[in-house]
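Deliverable D4.2, example record:
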Amino acid sequence: MHTIILPYFSEAEIDRYERILDHMLSMEAPKCEFEFLLSASPRTEPSDRLMQLASRVAPARHLHCPTQVFGYPFGATAMFWDSMREVARDSQGNDGFALWMESDMCPVSSDWLDRLDDQWQCSGDVLVMGCEVPDVEFRKKFRFYRPFRHRPVKKWISKHINGGACYRLDLVHQVSPEFQGGIFDVRLGDLLREQGGYCSTPSIAFSTLDRLQKDLHDPDKVLLHGYLQDKDAFLTACITGEAVAAPSTERRIFFGRFSPRTKIHPSEVMLAAILKAKEPELPALKIVERIASSRVETVSMPAAATNTSQQAKAA
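Output generated by the structure prediction step:
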């Protein structure tokens, strides 16, 4: 039994989940069992509307997150660990995963959940399976007259699995409290680099409005995350399969005139750096096994080798 966690803090989030759930309902029902955990921010009340929407797709239950921490990223981290404590209560003997599914993530293949289920069964004893964020470095400005090659290099992003991922149900019992603070996926990345226990899958991927048409035609991608994109425009493009222009905003130019400019997230340059840093490679599950020592062992498995969980168990 898998648990899909839908975290929300506003009516706008619920509106987006309504579109995602309607999209799921239009797809073929997954063969694997799953439920929804509707995780409400401590600043909002559990939504009966979201419960009704989710219950049409699969069994659903509420969680009113108790930890009174707000704002990004610490509020999101508190909601994540509240949700993981909840799913851990019934995790005994359950080999499923908890998918942290934000409102800018959209299934793009009818067998999306069955594909993730197959890959999870193949991944073995891991804590996290998802989209790998690579190390991203940039050269820090020093003095304007210094040559670029002499500027000191600083790490912008450390390698980790993006937060919108599949997690072991008893994750909260597998991770010491020192790694349950900060930005949850970055801190988990610190732990996984030391101890292993993660799987990078090509089935969950970042996408943008500019590259979405290419990603929709990629048979290895089943769940797309429009990180740092306009969420409503991204969902529309995923659901309809049609290109959608990013919204524009007016900007003042000289002599008081205005000119339209595409509205982008101020950190979109970071996403561009992430996508550029990812090396092109054959689609594969890259499994880094959990071990006690500092040495980690990586096993790469072609995506085609993960057809069914029964084949994995027989192997």
